[in-house]
């Protein structure tokens, strides 16, 4: 392994490594804090070891000890997004190969960016409070002092005390529960994670009044009881997907694969917490449109959780490979044409992201420099879709999907339980395809990896499924006022829901439509009443772009009723760009700010140029 340094972490990485973590939490719903006690088992990697630095952000540290003896500690200056280094001095010296147990008593802050505390009113059931965490990429340090970097992996054990009416869940295997001996109104839930994980894929939620349904031999779905049946229907293909993924990538090592449906403010579509995938409820449209998200998060069980990017600069290794496997699952379960169709959609998303950032922006590099860059601000679909395009391009060069998936599987087996850099990935690619090195040498690696903008080569895609979408989009683009009567409901009835989404995405890429066209589209296709969030958010953006004033309240409603950043940020931005309604966008944001997830609130404030 090349020497480790991670620009997103303050923690000591070359001199010690966490191997296990034992965590005790008391969840205080009144004060919005977690009282915590953590014991880190740390392996020493150098001689004369007597101090270490951990990551922390907004934590109150009460007491630190090392192997039971009091240790000195100090919090360094707070960095805007990286937090404060926690410097610990041991009362003794250790040598390479020894272990030390560092125990820390602390408390989180009510503004911890990993956590969202929901009032009963913000939940479906309206009766109980709810708390969930989202640690990726660098928020775990607001919940626990640790080496908050994907280059460090460890097992963990945890005990979480919550009020008796609530259930606690974690990204781990459940290990029983018991009444809290110190407070009869509370219960302690225990968890164990026997496979090494990194801090960002660590956590959990605890909370609410849950219901659980079995959806397969190793899978359960958890949600507030109001939507558990709907969720069980949506996720009924989970076991088939797991089996398909195993046949592609090797055995599933995490034992359990459960799905937790979060409240609408969850900022992502899905999050691959080991053993317990988190998903947004915004895709419960009754049409299994969540299948893609689940296939994606399942794929992370291999690329992301088992093989992990060494630092966030190599994030494409997680997301690019995951998108590649997710689309291989689509190929196995549906058809090659569907995979190709998704590839075309991905290329278009890449064009959109590059346009958003600007084609010269170094954040559109496949491997961006993350020094002094906030991972939340850098987030985009570039690592997903430039990463996929590169892998798909290599697949074309190396001999097709079976051949290339053979490489991906072998890469997974080689780097399993560890972390990897782009260079190590590339070296292994050259080793695996040793007979085809001359073809690989012709690839413009610098263009693909270290140059901003679109990739140097556009791969070939089969357009069978996309043709209908392109044709209908072009009919609208070219239509004159007098042609509008030729459109009928039948145009979209011929499209399935992924095609309808693609059609909307194509329309959105065009210059703003004339208001007359958009109104006609509503009249014949009734898009205002479509529930599928992927269709709806694109449709509302098209309307606002065309300055249809009636769509403004609908767009702001969608932006605030759910908080998935993929939808909320562009909707707010679109309304803000409609100059007559800029103030309205800002006002609505300010009114709802308190109910938004802290990361969503921070990013929307930036998008709308609101200071402080
Ligand atoms: N791990 C990501 C979500 C993430 C990335 C959270 C970076 C925080 C920082 C997850 O696997 C993901 O990619 N989710 C997508 C799902 C989609 C690609 C199917 C999402 O949220 O939209
Ligand atoms: Zn992902």
UniProtKB/TrEMBL annotation:
<dbReference type="GO" id="GO:0006508">
    <property type="term" value="P:proteolysis"/>
</dbReference>
<dbReference type="InterPro" id="IPR014782">
    <property type="entry name" value="Peptidase_M1_dom"/>
</dbReference>
<dbReference type="InterPro" id="IPR045357">
    <property type="entry name" value="Aminopeptidase_N-like_N"/>
</dbReference>
<dbReference type="GO" id="GO:0008270">
    <property type="term" value="F:zinc ion binding"/>
</dbReference>
<feature type="domain" description="Peptidase M1 leukotriene A4 hydrolase/aminopeptidase C-terminal">
    <location>
        <begin position="464"/>
        <end position="608"/>
    </location>
</feature>
<keyword id="KW-0482">Metalloprotease</keyword>
<keyword id="KW-0378">Hydrolase</keyword>
<feature type="binding site">
    <location>
        <begin position="564"/>
        <end position="566"/>
    </location>
    <ligand>
        <name>a peptide</name>
    </ligand>
</feature>
<feature type="active site" description="Proton acceptor">
    <location>
        <position position="297"/>
    </location>
</feature>
<dbReference type="GO" id="GO:0004301">
    <property type="term" value="F:epoxide hydrolase activity"/>
</dbReference>
<feature type="binding site">
    <location>
        <position position="296"/>
    </location>
    <ligand>
        <name>Zn(2+)</name>
    </ligand>
</feature>
<dbReference type="GO" id="GO:0019370">
    <property type="term" value="P:leukotriene biosynthetic process"/>
</dbReference>
<dbReference type="GO" id="GO:0043171">
    <property type="term" value="P:peptide catabolic process"/>
</dbReference>
<dbReference type="Pfam" id="PF01433">
    <property type="entry name" value="Peptidase_M1"/>
</dbReference>
<dbReference type="GO" id="GO:0070006">
    <property type="term" value="F:metalloaminopeptidase activity"/>
</dbReference>
<keyword id="KW-0479">Metal-binding</keyword>
<feature type="active site" description="Proton donor">
    <location>
        <position position="384"/>
    </location>
</feature>
<comment type="similarity">
    <text>Belongs to the peptidase M1 family.</text>
</comment>
<protein>
    <recommendedName>
        <fullName>Leukotriene A(4) hydrolase</fullName>
        <ecNumber>3.3.2.6</ecNumber>
    </recommendedName>
</protein>
<feature type="binding site">
    <location>
        <position position="300"/>
    </location>
    <ligand>
        <name>Zn(2+)</name>
    </ligand>
</feature>
<keyword id="KW-0963">Cytoplasm</keyword>
<feature type="binding site">
    <location>
        <begin position="267"/>
        <end position="272"/>
    </location>
    <ligand>
        <name>a peptide</name>
    </ligand>
</feature>
<dbReference type="InterPro" id="IPR012777">
    <property type="entry name" value="LTA4H"/>
</dbReference>
<dbReference type="InterPro" id="IPR049980">
    <property type="entry name" value="LTA4H_cat"/>
</dbReference>
<dbReference type="GO" id="GO:0005634">
    <property type="term" value="C:nucleus"/>
</dbReference>
<keyword id="KW-0862">Zinc</keyword>
<feature type="binding site">
    <location>
        <begin position="134"/>
        <end position="136"/>
    </location>
    <ligand>
        <name>a peptide</name>
    </ligand>
</feature>
<dbReference type="Pfam" id="PF09127">
    <property type="entry name" value="Leuk-A4-hydro_C"/>
</dbReference>
<keyword id="KW-0434">Leukotriene biosynthesis</keyword>
<dbReference type="Pfam" id="PF17900">
    <property type="entry name" value="Peptidase_M1_N"/>
</dbReference>
<dbReference type="InterPro" id="IPR015211">
    <property type="entry name" value="Peptidase_M1_C"/>
</dbReference>
<feature type="binding site">
    <location>
        <position position="319"/>
    </location>
    <ligand>
        <name>Zn(2+)</name>
    </ligand>
</feature>
<dbReference type="InterPro" id="IPR001930">
    <property type="entry name" value="Peptidase_M1"/>
</dbReference>
<dbReference type="InterPro" id="IPR027268">
    <property type="entry name" value="Peptidase_M4/M1_CTD_sf"/>
</dbReference>
<dbReference type="GO" id="GO:0004463">
    <property type="term" value="F:leukotriene-A4 hydrolase activity"/>
</dbReference>
<dbReference type="InterPro" id="IPR038502">
    <property type="entry name" value="M1_LTA-4_hydro/amino_C_sf"/>
</dbReference>
<dbReference type="InterPro" id="IPR042097">
    <property type="entry name" value="Aminopeptidase_N-like_N_sf"/>
</dbReference>
<keyword id="KW-0645">Protease</keyword>
<dbReference type="GO" id="GO:0005829">
    <property type="term" value="C:cytosol"/>
</dbReference>
<comment type="pathway">
    <text>Lipid metabolism; leukotriene B4 biosynthesis.</text>
</comment>
<dbReference type="InterPro" id="IPR034015">
    <property type="entry name" value="M1_LTA4H"/>
</dbReference>
<dbReference type="InterPro" id="IPR016024">
    <property type="entry name" value="ARM-type_fold"/>
</dbReference>
């Amino acid at each position: 392994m090349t020497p480790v340094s991670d620009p997103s972490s303050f923690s000591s990485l070359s001199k010690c490594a966490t191997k296990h973590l034992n965590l005790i939490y008391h969840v205080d719903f009144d004060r919005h804090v977690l009282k915590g006690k953590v014991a880190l088992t740390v392996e020493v990697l150098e001689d004369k070891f007597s101090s270490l630095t951990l990551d922390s952000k907004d934590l109150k540290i009460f007491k630190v000890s090392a192997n039971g003896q009091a240790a000195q500690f100090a919090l360094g200056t707070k960095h805007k997004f990286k937090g404060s280094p926690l410097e610990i001095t041991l009362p003794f010296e250790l040598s390479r190969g020894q272990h030390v147990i560092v125990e820390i008593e602390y408390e989180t802050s009510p503004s911890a960016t990993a956590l969202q505390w929901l009032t009963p009113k913000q939940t479906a059931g309206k009766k109980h409070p709810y708390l969930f965490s989202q640690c990726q990429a660098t928020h775990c340090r607001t919940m626990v002092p640790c080496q908050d970097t994907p280059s460090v992996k460890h097992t963990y054990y945890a005990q979480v005390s919550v009020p008796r009416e609530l259930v606690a869940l974690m990204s781990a295997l459940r290990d029983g529960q018991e009444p809290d001996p110190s407070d009869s109104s509370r219960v302690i839930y225990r968890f164990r994670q026997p496979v090494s994980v990194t801090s960002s894929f660590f956590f959990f939620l605890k909370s609410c009044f849950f219901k659980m349904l079995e959806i397969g031999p190793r899978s359960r779905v958890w949600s507030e009881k109001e939507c558990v049946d709907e969720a069980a229907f949506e996720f009924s293909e989970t076991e088939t997907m797991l089996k398909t993924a195993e046949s592609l990538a090797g055995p599933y090592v995490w034992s359990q694969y459960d799905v937790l449906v979060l409240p609408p403010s969850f900022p992502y579509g899905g999050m691959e917490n080991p053993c317990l995938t988190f998903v947004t409820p915004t895709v419960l449209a009754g049409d299994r449109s969540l299948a893609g998200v689940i296939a994606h998060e399942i794929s992370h069980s291999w690329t992301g959780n088992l093989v992990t990017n060494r630092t966030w600069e190599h994030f494409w290794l997680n997301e690019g490979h995951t998108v590649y496997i997710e689309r291989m699952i689509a190929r196995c379960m549906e058809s090659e044409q569907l995979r190709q169709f998704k590839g075309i959609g991905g290329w278009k998303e890449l064009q959109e992201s590059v346009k958003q950032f600007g084609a010269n922006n170094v954040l559109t590099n496949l491997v961006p420099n993350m020094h002094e860059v906030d991972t939340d601000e850098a987030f985009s679909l570039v690592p997903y879709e430039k990463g996929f395009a590169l892998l798909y391009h290599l697949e074309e060069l190396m001999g097709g999907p079976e051949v290339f998936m053979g490489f991906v599987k072998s890469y997974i087996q080689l780097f399993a339980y560890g972390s990897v850099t782009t260079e190590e990935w590339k070296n292994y690619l050259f080793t695996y395809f040793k007979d085809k090195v001359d073809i690989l040498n012709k690839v413009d690696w610098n263009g693909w990896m270290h140059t901003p903008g679109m990739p140097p080569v556009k791969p070939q895609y089969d357009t069978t499924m996309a043709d209908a979408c392109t044709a209908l989009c072009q009919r609208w683009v070219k239509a004159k006022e007098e042609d509008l009567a030729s459109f009928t409901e039948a145009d979209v009835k011929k499209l399935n829901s992924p095609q309808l989404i693609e059609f909307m995405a194509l329309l959105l890429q065009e210059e703003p439509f004339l208001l007359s066209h958009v109104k006609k589209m509503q009249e014949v296709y009734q898009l205002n009443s479509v529930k599928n969030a992927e269709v709806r958010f694109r449709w509302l953006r098209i309307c606002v772009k065309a300055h249809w004033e009636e769509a403004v309240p609908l767009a702001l409603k969608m932006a605030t009723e759910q908080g998935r950043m993929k939808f909320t940020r562009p909707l707010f931005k679109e309304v803000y760009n409609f100059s007559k309604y800029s103030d309205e966008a800002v006002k609505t944001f300010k009114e709802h700010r308190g109910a938004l997830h802290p990361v969503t609130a921070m990013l929307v404030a930036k998008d709308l140029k609101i200071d402080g």
